[in-house]
Amino acid sequence: MTEPDSAAADPRTVADEQADPRLARSRNRLLDAASHLLSTGGVEAVTVDAVTRVSKVARATLYRHFGSTTQLLAATFERLLPHVDTPTGDGPVRDQLIALLTTQADLVEQAPVQMTTLAWLAMGSIGDDHTDPAAVTSLRARVIEQYRQPFDRILTGPDARAMLGEFDTTFAIIELLGPIVFARLTGLRTIDHDDCTQLVDNFLATHPRVAVGNGPTADQCQ
């Protein structure tokens, strides 16, 4: 995907939009158009010409809102990313992890934009002369937060620490979620509830069975 050189978005844009509803409307029209193009044609379909044509918004206005195509794409991905609901409950750590992993597996399977976002962040505009590092970094932080927040709530809780001892939470999330993303990206198979149960059990089996005080061991929590 190519784009012309352009200045970064004016930092006063947000304030301008609040002061002038017309700017907010034009931004929404641009994002609506970009969302439609992304959903129907993929990342390569989201060009400045296509977005301005579909939205009927002038190119100059587009660059007033978004300093680059990368910035526009990042904002579009943020708009389309589905919300991740954290399963509630205070049951055993194993049950909570299985419920959360199953929820995330369903999301990965049913929301193609989730995979498109990850692929774009991994390969998309990195190294492109027109890359907008701030936009990419912001989107990456949003995706990471979306994935890891529910896991952190479980894995950093007292029950998990009592059951598993000290461990690298980030690597634990990779252990649990990584196979699901890989299976979806490669098309090897659809991950179901039984697969998520196996992934959680494999994860628990790789960590020490320790008891802190009167806390439960991993075997007792299964």
Automatic annotation (TrEMBL):
Claim: NADP is one of the keywords in the record: no
Annotated PANTHER family: HTH-TYPE TRANSCRIPTIONAL REGULATOR BETI (PTHR30055:SF234), HTH-TYPE TRANSCRIPTIONAL REGULATOR RUTR (PTHR30055)
Transmembrane segments: none
Region annotated Disordered, chain positions: 1-21
InterPro entries (alphabetical): DNA-bd_HTH_TetR-type_CS (IPR023772), Homeodomain-like_sf (IPR009057), HTH-type_TetR-like_transc_reg (IPR050109), HTH_TetR (IPR001647), Tet_transcr_reg_TetR-rel_C_sf (IPR036271)
Entry annotated with the keyword Transferase: no
Lineage summary: Bacteria, Bacillati, Actinomycetota, Actinomycetes, Mycobacteriales
Keywords: DNA-binding, Transcription, Transcription regulation
Gene3D superfamilies recorded: Homeodomain-like (1.10.10.60), Tetracycline Repressor, domain 2 (1.10.357.10)
DNA-binding region: 47-66
A Gene Ontology molecular function term of the record: transcription cis-regulatory region binding
Originating organism: Nocardia fluminea
Recorded coiled-coil stretches: none
Residue ranges of every copy of the HTH tetR-type domain listed in the record: 24-84
Protein name: TetR family transcriptional regulator
